[in-house]
Amino acid sequence: MSAVELNKYFVTPFFGGEYCGDNNLAYYLIKMVRRKELFRTTLVALVCLLLIALYQKNPSPLIRSRPATFQAIQIEDDQPLEEHSLKEVIINAQRSRLRKELYDFKFPSNRPLANFAMEDGGQPIRTIIFSTWRSGSTFLGDVLNALPGNYYHYEPLMDYGIIQIRGPPDADSALTRLKSLLNCDYTNLYN
């Protein structure tokens, strides 16, 4: 298509003017390109302003600061505090917190909390995640940790370094550590 035909059939009808010859073809093309650029720039600016306005009304929950929460520990005992060890106070506070968290929680097969507490002779539900690097195990552990009454050991063998333990000399101590963690026995664990 020649420049004259382009001017007759495309440029002139598009801008609503009359055919003015070949001289005005460049003028109309430049005018058309500038109108498109102005339209695109205006559209992008409006979208940006709209997003900023919406963001100001509903800020992201990830950026919003969390309010600090404090919980008072109340010891329901007639004995003075000096007679309790710090360990007993912490364990009693954790028991109280668990009772509150698990008050309306639906356990499997509608069994009570005592069936899962080792101190009451119950057996807790144990979940072990074996994985490789970059497989999403940290995310899965965080999801499981959101369940009430759960305790999550993140990479319990990290003290051995980034190695594969397949035999002596570290295998026996690593197995002992894992068994102790699964049985909630923290007496012989040290770094």
From TrEMBL:
One of its GO terms (biological process) is sulfur compound metabolic process. The chain crosses the membrane at residues 38-55. InterPro entries: Gal/GlcNAc/GalNAc_ST (IPR051135), P-loop_NTPase (IPR027417). It comes from the Eukaryota. SUPFAM superfamilies: P-loop containing nucleoside triphosphate hydrolases. GO terms for molecular function: N-acetylglucosamine 6-O-sulfotransferase activity. Keywords: Membrane, Transmembrane, Transmembrane helix. This is Sulfotransferase domain-containing protein.
